[in-house]
Amino acid sequence: MAKQESNASTEAALQGEAQADIHVTISNEELEGLRKLAGERDEFKDLAQRIRAEFENYQKRNRQEREQERKYWHRPLALDLLPVLDNLQRAIAAGKEAGESSPLVQGVAMVESQLLEALKRHGITPIDAAGKPFDPNLHQAVMQKAAPHVEPNTVVQVLETGFMHHDRVLRPAKVIVSCKP
């Protein structure tokens, strides 16, 4: 039995030497080739990681753009409806100037308020301009008017109501701005 163990250990030693010989027999050229392959592997791994990051960024940008489109898709319709709203306001103003309070004037006022409420539900709100400091981002100055009791560059009259669509100007308010007398 001792002889079998001795043979087994001798075989193991020979296999170990053979393996050691295999490791020793790898040439420098082969070693450089393996290093080159490892370097290429690392380059491809880096490239794959960059492409993955770029794709994730693309998906994120695309998702944000779709959200923006959904948020502001009412814009063209609202721009088409604003002149209708202006005409309703003019009709109400003409009725008040004529001293009328007939059911027709009241009906037009109701239609105006319904239209304003519908626009508001979709994020379209009027710009409050009267008495406010002039802001070129919100107002379009049509003319200046001397106003002795009003600070210069203050909106003294709104000729056409402006509207915001969420956080963007849909249409600037057309206003008359005060100036020094």
Radius of gyration: 40 Å
Largest sheet: 3 strands, antiparallel
Indicate the overall shape: elongated
Number of domains: 3
List segments where confidence is low: pLDDT < 50 over at least 5 consecutive residues.
none
Assembly state: single chain
Biggest sheet: strands side by side, in what order? 1-4-5
Helix share bin: 55-70%
SS element count, helices: 4
Strand content: 15-25%
Mean pLDDT: 86
Question: What is the helix/strand order?
Answer: HHHHEEEEEE
Protein structure class? alpha+beta
Distance between the termini: 124 Å
Number of strands: 6
Walkthrough of the structure:
It is a single chain. With 181 residues, the chain is of the alpha+beta class. It folds into 3 domains: 2-71; 74-122; 125-181, Nucleotide Exchange Factor Grpe, Chain A, domain 2, CATH 2.30.22.10. It contains 4 helices and 6 strands, in the order H-H-H-H-E-E-E-E-E-E. It has helices at residues 2-24, 28-72, 75-97, 103-121; strands spanning 124-126, 139-146, 155-160, 163-165, 168-171, 173-179. It has a 3-stranded antiparallel β-sheet. A 3-stranded mixed β-sheet has the order 2-6-3, with no helix packed on it. It is elongated.
